[in-house]
Amino acid sequence: MLNPYVKKIYKCFRCQEEIYFDNNTKSQTDKPIPLDPITNLPHDCSKSNFKSRKKTVSNEIMELEKREIERIRRISYD
Ligand SMILES: [Zn+2]
To answer: What residue ranges do the domains of the chain occupy?
Structure first.
């Protein structure tokens, strides 16, 4: 029997990364949105033409947050 929770994995035609589609996740135009099977977030295509500056900034913020978490961990272990 097929497990209904197993995601049908496709490959992004642009970057060849794994993506999947979820019928519950659609854009406002009712088109399925490619999702990242690891994060379950909309696929952030590295080869996308619509690469926005905003995205780059948020990645930088995430990186900073990671470092901050690491720093706090180290302090709490000392
Ligand atoms: Zn892609």
So the answer is: 1-47, 50-78
